[in-house]
Every structure is written in C-alpha cells, then in structure tokens.
Automatic annotation (TrEMBL):
Residues 23-237 form the Tr-type G domain. It comes from Cellulomonas terrae. GO terms for biological process: sulfur compound metabolic process. This is sulfate adenylyltransferase. The keyword Nucleotidyltransferase applies. Its EC number is 2.7.7.4. Pfam families: GTP-eEF1A_C (PF22594), GTP_EFTU (PF00009), GTP_EFTU_D2 (PF03144). InterPro entries: CysN_GTP-bd, CysN_II, CysN_NoDQ_III, EFTu-like_2, G_TR_CS, GTP-eEF1A_C, P-loop_NTPase, SO4_adenylTrfase_lsu. It is an enzyme of class 2 (transferase). GO terms for molecular function: ATP binding; GTP binding; GTPase activity; sulfate adenylyltransferase (ATP) activity. Keywords: ATP-binding, GTP-binding, Nucleotide-binding, Nucleotidyltransferase, Transferase.
Amino acid sequence: MGAAPTILEPTEETQHVTEHATRDLLRLATAGSVDDGKSTLIGRLLYDTKSVLADQLSAVEAATLARGGGEVDLALLTDGLRAEREQGITIDVAYRYFSTATRAFVLADTPGHVQYTRNMVTGASTAELAIVLVDARKGVLEQTRRHATITALLRVPHVVLAVNKMDLVDFDEATFRAIADEFTAYALSLGIPDVTAVPLSALTGDNVVDRSTRTSWYDGPTLLEHLESVPVGRDALSEPFRFPVQVVIRPRTAEHPDYRGYAGRVASGVVSVGDEVTVLPSGKRSTVVGIDTFDGPLTEAHAPQSVTLRLADDVDVARGDVLVPTASTVEVGSDLEGTVCWLAEKRSVLGARLLVRVGTRTVRALLREVNARLDVDTLTVEAWDGVDTLHAVDATDTSSDIPPRALTLNAIGRVKIRLAEPIVLDEYATHRRTGGFLLVDPADGTTLAAGMIGATLLDRLAPTPSAQDDDDWFAGAGI
Ligand SMILES: Nc1nc2c(ncn2[C@@H]2O[C@H](COP(=O)(O)OP(=O)(O)OP(=O)(O)O)[C@@H](O)[C@H]2O)c(=O)[nH]1
C-alpha cells in the first residue's frame, strides 16, 4: 500500500503554502500514456520557469553529457526528483512546486504505470486543472479517453490538452486540429465544458513557456500563459460555507477561563462574524461571535483558511461536526449513494463493515450494494439491479475468485452505503470540497476507495438499473 490518497484533505505539502500564496495558487495534475513526454514536459516547466536548484541542474547536464550530449534531457530532471522522493517509501504522487511572477503552482506528478486510475484519482482529486498529454504522432488513444473519463468523473474544472511532440509532425496545423477536435468532442460527451488545446514540444520548449516561432497558425496561449490566467480558487469561494470541525479548543487558562473555539479549515465559502450557523448533524443553531487566527482576529474568513470560530452559545460541537449557514438547506442522512474508485488490492465485499471518512468525520458503515461498474480498460459500464446481490455473495468470502459484481483495484463503481450515524451529504457535483469521501477498512486502516457523493458520470454512461433495497437484511446486520 502506498501513502493514503488525499481526496478529502489537503496534503502536508499543500498545507505549508501560506494563506497569502494560496490565493494565487493553482493545483494541477498531469496525465499521459507512457512515453508521451510527461516527464519532459514537467522538466521543461520547472527549467523554463527557473524552478530548478543549481545542483539538480548540473547533475542533469552531467548526465546528458554522459549520454553523448545534445539537448538537456529534462525527463532526467523529473525522474531524478521522483527517484529522490521514492527512496524507501512507496509513493503514489509526488508534488512539485514552481512559481512565476503572477502565480504559484502545485503539480501532482503521477507516474503513468499500471495503477493509473488510483494514481490519477489521488493526483487529480484536489486539482483545479488537468493536463492531458498526447503524442502528436499517435493522437487520441484509449488511454487518453480513460484519462478524460477520470477527469470528468472527478469534475476537474479545467482541462488542457497538450498535443506534444509537434516537432515530430513538422508543427503541422491539420494534425493538431484533428487531435484537438476529436478530444474536445469526446470531452464534451463526458460533460467537460472547458478544454484548451495547445500544440507544443516539451523537448524543444515550443509553446510551453515561450511562444513558438514554428506555429504561426496558432494564436492561443502557451501552456504557461494559460496556467497563469485560468481562473482559480473561485469554485471554493462560490460554494456555500462549510466548516468541518477538526478540534474543539478549550484551553481553560486563568487568562481565558471560558474560551471555547472550534478549529478547522474553511472547506468552502465565506463566514463572517455575526453569521447564523447550524451545527450538523445535531441541527443546533448559534451565531459566530469571533474568528481567531495565529495572526489575530478576523471579521471574515474564506476557503481555504484555517481558523478557530467562536459561537455565541455553548452548543454541543464535536470533532467531525460541520458548521453550515443556518439559512440554507443541507442534506443530512445515513444512506450514502455515490461513485467510488477502488484503490486497494483487496476487492470489495458486499455486506462488509467499513469506515467512511467525510471531511473530519469518520463513521462506521456497511457496503450495501454495488450496482454499476465502469471498466476503465474498455470504458464499458455494466449495471445490475441490487435484488439478489447480497444473497449471491457471502460477506465472509475470502476466496481468490472475484465475484462478478465486486470492485477490484482501479475499478470505478456506483455504490450504496448505510452509515451508522447521519452525516452531511453534500453532492460532489456541486460541492467538490465537501462531497468526497474515503472508504477505510476498519481492520487495518487501509484506504479501500475514494468516492464522490451523489449522481456522477456513471449515471450518464450507465443504463438505469431497477434497483431494489433489501432493508430487512440490513436490519439483521445490525446497522
Ligand atoms: N521529439 C520529441 N521528443 C520528445 C518530446 N517530449 C518528450 N520526448 C521524448 O519522448 C521520450 C519519452 O519522454 P518522457 O518524458 O520520458 O515521457 P513519459 O514516459 O511520458 O514520462 P513518464 O511516464 O512520466 O516517465 C523521451 O525520449 C523524450 O526525450 C517532444 O516534444 N519532442
């Protein structure tokens, strides 16, 4: 098992970014088939934005010379950094930082080998932009379609199609247009609204950071110009206010005998002193009377700031509760339906006891149903009604035979989960910051799957199953 994926919470790496920098921060992920030039492109971005340390650069120059010289092999840069990070630990995603005068970037670098779905889900779940690479000579491949599908599933707001290796097709406009049109049409069919296609050469640098003199027919932005100008952070601010409580702070010092605050990160939206808030799932109401930070009090806080909120009333608030605006309608329930990407070697078992993590909340749960499965290899969807599924599969079955309706590593499926306690059920489609969840194996803490609450892409792709519930069975199972 690698490091736990981060669909819900910012990683250690992103957390160190200061509040100020966060405002101008773009999180991006890359996806490409093997040899499309992902490492070279990342190396080029780091190199041309001067984000490479001198010693790393001389190591790469020396290695290039040792290989017989020529153009600096920028893939060595990325791969070298990767190797550094991978020593001794299995890591799914490495994060690279670079910045320009206008913006800072965190790039999730997901190695493109076998566990691509898992890696891409991990990298793209927090990304606001995905770069999908294709080799201009090969055009749109099955793998490209898979990457587009996962990007759509995770609702990454912006997608860039990087048509790489344009130098190998003589910077031919027709080749570029044909690939761009095919990809854009496919993306549209998946509901991806915003695709920007850029003809580039990672190796020679054309249209990556610097404008190419060999694509006079192209009047769009270079890759970096686009990365610098694409709108960021708006989504988190435009979503309604959500504050998952991480810690209840009660110092009880002589100085502040009655202090009681709720620390956490504003997951989405904005909160101000004086706002009426409701604590969920309890439904208790109060008013924000203070917003505290290490740097002093604020009158207003917005996503993704970390703050401590104080309330007017001594209501019962615990870790895992969510503060929301009182005036809004928020769904709370204990039946969770959604789409999951299965991330574990062990397969799904119907009726299995699980832990579900949503925000800062962890609750016990039961996997009730897998009623559709997307095969990312073939991009076909199988859908089943839920009627006899539970009886067909023994919950204690540990045989190596995979039941036909199980989810295995990299599979994407639609599930129904019964929770032991009610939680806030924000639809991922409209609440990307709070509508994600993780399924965890209570036995050993393994992350089994990353999921999205509510209707997702699978509903668009799948025939509608005539699912029926089997509540009696669940009553028997004790949830
Ligand atoms: N001619 C040409 N070659 C390129 C270009 N970009 C990458 N290459 C070459 O394509 C090969 C594969 O490039 P990598 O960057 O290692 O590609 P990758 O396999 O997608 O990267 P990872 O899977 O992330 O390791 C290398 O030999 C690169 O030098 C390009 O724009 N033009």
